[in-house]
Amino acid sequence: MWKTNLITFLTASLQRKLMLAFMVLVTVVMSAGGIYLLRNQQQSASAALEAHAVHMTQMLSKTLAVPLWNIDLKSIHDQLEMVMADPEIYSVALYQREQNQPLASKKRDGQAVAGIACNAPVIYERDQPPSATELGSVRLVYTRYYMYQAVERTRMGIVAAMLLLLASLSLATYVLLRRMVQKPIGELLAMTQRVADGDLDVRIPVLSRDDIGLLSEKLNHMTDRLKQTMDGLGKSERKYKRINETLEVRIQERTDELRLLLHSVGEGIFGVDAAGRVTFINPAALNMLGFSESEMTGKGVHDLIHHSRKDGSRYPDEDCPMYASFTRAVTNHVTDEVLWCKDGGSFPVEYSSMPIIKDGKVLGAVVTFYDITERKQVNDKLEKSAAALRNQVGELSKARKSMLNILEDLKETRKEAESAAHKINAMSQAVVDALMMINGQGLVQFWNQGAEKLFGYTAEEAMGMNFHEMVVPPELREKAQAGMGNFAATGQGVVFGATIQTTAVNRSGLIFPVEVSISPFQVDDAWFAVGTVRDITERNQAENELKAHIEDLERFSRLTINREEKMIQLKEEINTLLEQTGKEKKYKIVA
């Protein structure tokens, strides 16, 4: 934890990053130079000691020639004592020719440190007659202990000098960076924060033509453009607000009319999902069956009201025409079956079941049924039934006329939806998604051309940048960074594996809404994530408007689903609007 806190502290500001980079660079250079100097010094000292050992051995071999010839042991011991006065000599020994044991020797206690052993023959030379006789040999062993001590003292001196130089350079660099980088950037951040807080009249003074001055100039330009954009958005918002208010009133009026129409019809109507569970049911159906809406909604319709045939025998699911509609997309019309009530009784019905299909998949079915008890009981009352039927047809005709009037009004709504659809279509043709890959610390590892266009950074510039600083709002960055730490350890971050809407900031500092989708993956023991970022500024405006229109049309279709002809007309309207916006048809019309 303390290592993480130290790294965070050192990299929290540009000044600290520059100071850290400078200190690392200087330390590496000075360390390399110091190591080189120390190594050369040690090698030179070792070579000098070896040369000295050879020289001393040769000199001793010459001075011992006469004493060894005369076997003058006292002189020999005196010379050996004199040699041992040199603290770097560990031992000395004089050997007679062809003798394994030394004639005389001197040795210090302990062991020689990295000893240097030198041997030289002892030769006695005579002038008259000229001759040279090898009497034996002398052996000197030098210790490197004192050489190593001298090298260590030199090393400590070099290290002290390097530390002093590094401290002096660091202090000078700190003062320069504080004056030339930290202070201007601090002023720039303060002014930028005022702009971010909504003060679009503030301007940053441009005091130089360096990078900071150019950045200040660009931020001023961005602020001007942002203010113009906000002014334009304010006008557009007021305009769309008036349009939405008017549209909401008209939609509510049409919705109330359709709801009244659905509740006023005499037929029983209910809808089921792909599992046969009731999703909606109208009051007429509830009155005929004796159930409340809560008792039927979400329940299996077959086991509730269609479990047995009219003779009381079990009615298997697979033989039921309703079951065929919501499982196999089969349209059925049945005239000789019964439905069962809450009190255990039953009544004969004529019903139609029609599947609901979207994108080739059966989502459920809509069932319309009539109570035909009177039709089954008495035929001498056929005329009365025919009159009642004519009345129902009249009601249906009125309802159809009312629906046609509503659909005429919907044409105007459709024109407004088409305008919004054109906006979305134009926007979808122009959008190019940004694609990037980040590592477990949130740093960019890959950057495509879409990302270059969206954020303004080239791929080379984006490498190593923090992804959160570009697409996570400032107030959520701390939480996202904490989640990134969790993601680095387990591959599960708070913002990964989902699609979210947030804001992003480009190279010029412009903040805009985006849709971000991030998927994590693991390579060996390391975690990464692939993310796509899409600018949804215009899409949000146009798509919300279109969505409202489509939801209105879908609401109308659900409310009028009791009429096959009306439902087909509404589905065709929705399919037409979706085709105009470049989307696939939502409904499959089954004749």
If you had to describe this structure to a student in words, what would you say it looks like?
The protein is an alpha+beta fold. The protein has a domain at 12-149: Beta-Lactamase. The protein is built from 18 helices and 14 strands. The strands form three sheets. It has a five-stranded antiparallel sheet with strand order 6-5-9-8-7. A five-stranded antiparallel sheet has the order 11-10-14-13-12. The protein has a four-stranded antiparallel sheet with strand order 2-1-4-3. Helix 12 runs antiparallel to helix 17 (537-559). The longest helix has 54 residues, at 211-264. The radius of gyration is 49 Å and the shape is elongated. Residues 423-431 and 484-496 have low confidence and may be disordered.
What is the terminal separation in angstroms?
69 Å
The CATH topology label of the domain at 12-149 is: Beta-Lactamase
* Average residue-wise pLDDT: 77
Low-confidence spans: 423-431, 484-496
What is the second-level CATH architecture of the domain at 12-149? 2-Layer Sandwich
Structural category is alpha+beta
Largest sheet: 5 strands, antiparallel
Please report the first level of CATH classification, the CATH class of the domain at 12-149: Alpha Beta
Rg from alpha-carbon coordinates: 49 Å
Please tell me what the overall shape is: elongated
The tally of helices reads 18
Total strands: the figure is 14
| Proportion of strand residues | 15-25%
Helical content, roughly?
55-70%
Strand arrangement across the biggest beta sheet: 6-5-9-8-7
